[in-house]
Amino acid sequence: MLSERAQQIPPFLVMEILEKAKSLERDGADIIHLEIGEPDFPTPVKIRQAAIEALEQGKTHYTHSMGILPLREAIADHYRKKYNVVVSPDQVIVTMGTSPALLLLLSTLVNPGDEVILSDPCYACYPNFIRYVNGQVVSVPVHAKEGFVLQPETIKEKVTSHTKAIMINSPSNPTGTVLSAAILKAISETGPYIISDEIYHGLTYGAEEHSILEFTDRAFVLNGFSKYYAMTGWRLGYIIAPTDFVRPMQKLQQNLFICASSISQWAGVVALTEHHSELDDMVEIYDTRRKFLLKSLRELGFKVEVEPQGAFYILADARQFTAHSFQFSLDILEKAHVAVTAGVDFGRNAEGFLRFSYANNLQNIEKAMMRLEKYLRENV
Ligand code: PMP
Predict the structure, then answer these.
(1) Which residues have a Cβ under 8 Å from the Cβ of 306 and sit 6 or more positions away?
(2) Probe target for ligand 1 pocket from 36, 173, 201, 231, with the most ligand atoms within 8 Å of CB
(3) Same domain for 298 and 206
(4) Are residues 240 and 264 located together in one domain of the fold?
(5) What pTM does this model have?
(6) CA–CA separation, 154 vs 30, rounded Å?
């Protein structure tokens, strides 16, 4: 008999679409993947070389549970240089990706019944993590006409004596929204702890990105190497936490995970401390794709009210075509062989929307738009 905890976890719909796409591919179909949030680029060469060196030098053992000191120092330094904030390496815990970081953090912070405020839509896994630790999800709808920006005034209305934290994600998955300094400051003044998922930092197109630590110390930063550094498979991330929370999270890390991969950690040091021209090229290429996709989707009749300025997603309003985004995305996959993610995966407020990822090359995106045009002409 399954535990209640396991029973209440819903599937991550993007993975369901991906698995369905894979099964069509096994039957010979040529699928274009615009559903996954995973860079299509290889990891920059110096980072790969650092991992090879680490292997050859025998850095193949467990590390300190909080991570190797050179990496924790490099992370603290990165935040000082980029955002002008003071972070001690002792406040940094290195994890096997941002996802385990989220588990360590929420397990340490949330008591059963505590409320965590989230935007709707938000990254699909956030509510599931919160429920997993028996917390209550409190959703704040964000709207396309406001560029999906979380409104501090609306957050204030939702804060109660049970509110433990407010979770934010800028640049955002799935909306691509980048929160301004003024909005971050106002959110940090609403009272509860802020959990700021900064995993898409580095991937902005014209917008200025800020860390929550510029505005408050009562905050936890989650970050990782998966997106900007194109290192999804390396499983490397980190938490920056107020000092009081570090030791409890360290104890959890020791018990649940022991430490992050030694090889990935040594590669992470090089990721942060050296310049990688590939990263500048990637951002430029993402931006070209973003502009092309935006224009094409609008021409096809999708509505995108405010131009997304970060990450590698466009959340397009498809309500003129459908009220059921999951069925719609399945139908597009089966008939047009284009995989996209249903908005409903990210919250009730994004039902009727589709998320398009531009972590795929321009040629494929162009081909996908032609297929979509034909699909809409013949089926809608
Ligand atoms: N946060 C957000 C907003 C994400 O989009 C993702 C990956 N899709 C993650 C966290 C998890 O990233 P990872 O575990 O690879 O660091």
Answers:
(1) 144, 145, 146, 147, 148, 177
(2) 173
(3) no
(4) yes
(5) 0.96
(6) 45
Residues 137 and 228 grouped into a single domain: yes
Going by DSSP bridges, is the β-strand pair 136-141/115-120 parallel, antiparallel, or unpaired? parallel
On whether both 265 and 288 belong to a single domain, the answer is: no
Ligand 1 neighbour 341 (Cβ under 6 A) = no
Count CA atoms within 13 Å of residue 186 on its CB side: 13
Residue 226 CA: nearest ligand 1 atom is 15
Instruction: Among 18, 36, 99, say which to mutate for ligand 1: greatest number of ligand atoms within 8 Å of CB.
Output: 99
**Cβ distance 139 to 118 under 8 Å?**
yes
Top mutation candidate among 35, 106, 222, 226 for ligand 1, by most atoms within 8 Å of CB: 226
In a domain, 137, yes or no: yes
Same domain, 149 and 298: no
Per residue of the chain (380 residues), what is the pLDDT tens digit? 888 888 888 777 778 888 999 999 999 999 999 998 999 999 999 999 999 999 999 999 999 999 999 999 999 999 999 999 999 999 999 999 999 999 999 999 999 999 999 999 999 999 999 999 999 999 999 999 999 999 999 999 999 999 999 999 999 999 999 999 999 999 999 999 999 999 999 999 999 999 999 999 999 999 999 999 999 999 999 999 999 999 999 999 999 999 999 999 999 999 999 999 999 999 999 999 999 999 999 999 999 999 999 999 999 999 999 999 999 999 999 999 999 999 999 999 999 999 999 999 999 999 999 999 999 999 98
Does residue 232's CB lie within 6 angstroms of at least one atom of ligand 1? yes
Our answer on whether the CB atom of 268 is closer than 6 Å to any ligand 1 atom is: no
Q: How far apart are CA 85 and CA 223, in angstroms?
A: 15
Q: Which CATH number is 223's domain given? A: 3.40.640.10
Cβ 174 under 6 angstroms from ligand 1: no
Find, among 217, 113, 205, 222, the residue nearest to 167 by Cα: 222
Instruction: Pick the atom of ligand 1 nearest to 100's CA.
Output: 14
**Tokens (6 digits) for 284:** 């430029």
Ligand 1 center to 201 CA (angstroms): 12
Range of the domain at 113: 61-273
Task: For residue 170, give the 3-state DSSP assignment.
Answer: coil
Are 214 and 325 contained in the same domain? no
